## 1
Amino acid sequence: MPYEIIPKKKTRSISPFISFSARGRVGLNQAATAIMDNSAGEFVLLMWDKDRHRVAIQPISKKDSRAYKLGRAKSSSMVFAKSFMEQIQYDFNETRTFPAEWNDDRGFFEIEISPDCIKSSRAKKAASNGTRRLKQ
C-alpha cells in the first residue's frame, strides 16, 4: 500500500485555554495570551484555592518575590511553574488542558482543576473507597 500524505490540521481556539505540562510548565494559548498582553504584565502570581480546586493566574507588571516570569512566544506564553505544581500536589505526569475564564473584576484567569489531578485528592478518594469496601 503506498504512503498517503495527511494534510496538517490547525486547531486554534478563540477561547482561552491553559495547559499544565508534564515538564511543569503552564502554557497559555493564543486567546489567553492576547488577554494577558492587554494587561502588560511581565510576571504572574499563581494562586491556589484548595477548597474549590481552582488556580488563578494574575498578571503583574512589577517584579515580586512570589511572582513567576511570563515567557512570551509569537502567539502564546508560558510560565515555568514546577515548584507551584509540586506545592499544590498537582500530578504533572501528563499534559492536560483546561478552559480558562478571565475574571475582569479581579484581573486574573481562573482555571478549575479536576480533583483527580491532585495527588492528595486521589489518595483521599482511594482511602475512602478502601474503607467502603471493608464495610461491605
## 2
Amino acid sequence: MDQPRKNEYIRRSPVRLIDEDGQQVGVIAVQEALQKARDAGLDLVEVSANTVPPVCKIMDYGRYLYELKKSEKKQKSTNKTDVKEIRMGLRTDQHDLQTKLKKAKEFLADKDRVRVNLRLRGRDHVHRDIGEKKIKEFVSLLHEVAELDGTIRSQGSVFTADLTPRKQPLKKEQDETENQIQRQEESKGN
C-alpha cells in the first residue's frame, strides 16, 4: 500500500487545506498549513497528490491509515466468492453421497458457489445415462438451497453442474408442490 505523505514530507506548495472538521480553509502555503496542524495537535496529510494544488487535510495520521486498511480489507472480502468443488464417481456409495450433499449445503450456506463433477472411468462410459441421472438426482436434492446455473454439461468423461446459493431458501409448501408436479409428470411418462 502506498502511504500518503505527511507533515514535512509534503513537497509541493501551495496546498488546498481542509481542517479537522472537514471545512475547506482554502489554498495556502505548506508551512502555514503545517503550523495549523501542529496547533491542533494533529498531522497534515496529503490526501490527493494528483490534483493542482494538492489537497491536504488536518487529521490523525495513524487513524487515517487504520481506516484505509479497514476499507481495503472490506473491499477484498465483499468481492470474494469462492467456487467449491464436489467430486464423485458413478460408483460413489449412498452414504458418501450424503456426506458430499452435507458439505455442499455448508458451502452454499457460506454463500460460496458449488461445482459438482461426476467423472466416468473405464467401463463407466458405457453407462453415461446412469451418470447423468445420478448428477441430476444430486442437484435435485439441493434445489431448496441452490439454483442450477445453466444446464448440466458433459465434457468428455465428466458431467458438470454449477450451483449458486439461493437468496432465500424455498419454503416447504413450494417444495411439496414441485414434488407433486414432478411425480405427475413421471407417472404420465410411464
## 3
Amino acid sequence: MPEKISHKVYIYPETEKKIARESPSNTEDLPLPVVRYPDHYGTFIAFSELESSEYFFCECERNPILNYFKLEKIWTENEIVNPGSWNHHRFPEAITQRLKEPVLFGDVFKFKPSLCHRCNLKVPQMRYCHEMYGRRIKQYFGWYFKQDQMRLAVVFPDYLPGITPKDLARLCRRFVNFETGLEKGDEGYSRNYYSKEIQYFQNKKIVEKILADYTRNSLGIFL
C-alpha cells in the first residue's frame, strides 16, 4: 500500500457544492476544464476542452477501467468490450450511450496524462454524496475511492488473480460464489453456514477498510 504523501495539499471549497446526479458536466480549473461526471454514485470521470469536444479519461483511470471490465466479464482478449448486462452508471452518460453494443476499447476510451483532480491536486467542484452518507473526503472524492477499488481489482468477494494484491485476494478467495443468508433465505442454514457467513462479513469489512485507507493515503493532506 502507498505511503502517505505529506506534500499534497487540497483546499475544500468554502461553500458546499451540488451533488453530481444524472451525469452532469461542470467547468472546473483543470487542463481539460469540462468535467463529465458519471451518474450518481458512479466511478469514472471524463474530461474535455468544450462541451462539444472529444472527451478523454485521465491516464490514471486506464487500469481501473480495464479491471472493471474484466471483473464484469465483459472484456475480451482482442480488446472488445461486450457490454450485455452491466452497471452502466459507473460512466458518464456520453460513454454509456456508446456502450450499448460491442465496441473496440480504443474507439471509445481515449486517455491523456494528468487530467483529473487527483493528478492536479484539485478538489472536485461537485460532490459525490450528501454529508449524511460520508465525511467530507468521501463527499468530494468518492469517485476516486471507487476508482482505487477497481485499481486493486476488488469487488468483494470477487477479485482478479495476478492483479489484486495477495493480502486482499486471500481475504476474498474463500467467499467467491458464496451466498449470504439474505440471498439464500432460511433454506440450507446450518451452524457451519452461519459461522462462514459471519466470517464473510468480517472479511468484507476488513477489505473495505484496506481499500479506503489506500485512497486516503494516496490523496494526502486536506485543509
## 4
Amino acid sequence: MLFPESETGDLSQSSFPLESSPVLSLKSINADVPQYKDLRKNRTRLLHHLEILYQRINGQPICLVEHKDCFTNGAMRDTLRKLLGGIKNFRKYVMIYSIDPTVYRYPLPMEDRIYILGGSVSETYDNFGHDFTRRFSLPLIESVAESSRMRVLAVCFGYQSMAQAYGNFIGVPIETKKEAYQFGVYPLHFHQDVHPAIEPLISRFPRYAVFSRSGYPQTADGRPVSSIPDIQTLASLQGEFCYGSASAHYLPPGVSYLKDPATGHDKMVGVQFHPEIQNTKQHIQPILDFINTLKPSELMVSPEVALEGSIGRVRKSIAQVFMTSVLEHFAKEITDQ
C-alpha cells in the first residue's frame, strides 16, 4: 500500500461567497496530504538520470513549453523546483520556452529531451490553437514517433493539442468541441497495467486533481478520443462529478500512446487535469482570480460552486507524486537508450 488509505475524503459541497474564501488558509488546505513513502528515492533517481542527460547533451534535458499569461505557469515552475530540489537544479535541468500567442514562434523538437506541455489561456479550437497544433504539436509527435530518446508529458491545453496532432498523424481527424468553462477538484481512478509511471497512484480509494477546461476533443465522426487505436486510458473520473460535462464521455482524464518498441512503454502521457497544482494558496489563488474574471454564463456551474470546487478537496492533491514518477520513468528510459 503506497498511500495511507484510511479515508476517501469529504465529497460534500458547501457554498461560500466569492469575496470570502475562508478555506484558503494554509492550515486548512495543507491538512491530510497523502504521503508516498518512496518519493524521496524517486527524486534521487530522477536527478541521477537528468544529470546523465545533462552531460550527454551539455544542456537542459527538460523542455517546459508554457504559454504566456496562463494561470498555471507559476504552479508548474514551483512544483518542478520542489521536486528537483531547488532553484539551482531547476535552472540546470529545465529550459523554459514561453509561447506568446501573438508571435506564433515555436521551438524545434530535439532528442534526449523530456517535453512538458502546459496549459494556455488560448483554446485548441481558436486560431492560435490550430496554428500551435499544426506547427508545433504535429512535428513533435512525428519526432517522438521516430526517436526512442524523446518523451512528452502534455497537460490541459497541451493534452488536447497533442491529441489532435496524434489524430492527424495516424489519419483520424480530431476536432475540439467548445463547452463552458469547467473547474473543480475531481476524484480519479488510475488503471493498473497501463503505464509503469502511474503505479504509485493506483489505489482502491480516489486520488484528487484540479481540472480546468472549456472544450473536449473527439473524432470528426463523434467518437471518444479513447476509441482511437493505440490510445490507452490511464485514469478515469471516479463517480459522477462532472456536472454533465460532455468531456467526461469523450475525453479521458489521462491517456498514453506512441509505444516504444524497445521498452513496450508509451512515450507520451497526456492528462486533462493539472498534476502540477499543489495544495498551497500560491497555486490555487491564480485559478480563483481567473474564475472571478468570467461571467456566470461562461461557467458550467455557478461561480460559487466552481470556486469551492477548486479548493475544497485539493488537500488530496497528487501533484508531486505524479510529476516525479512520470519524469523519473521518462528520464530513465531515455538514458537507457
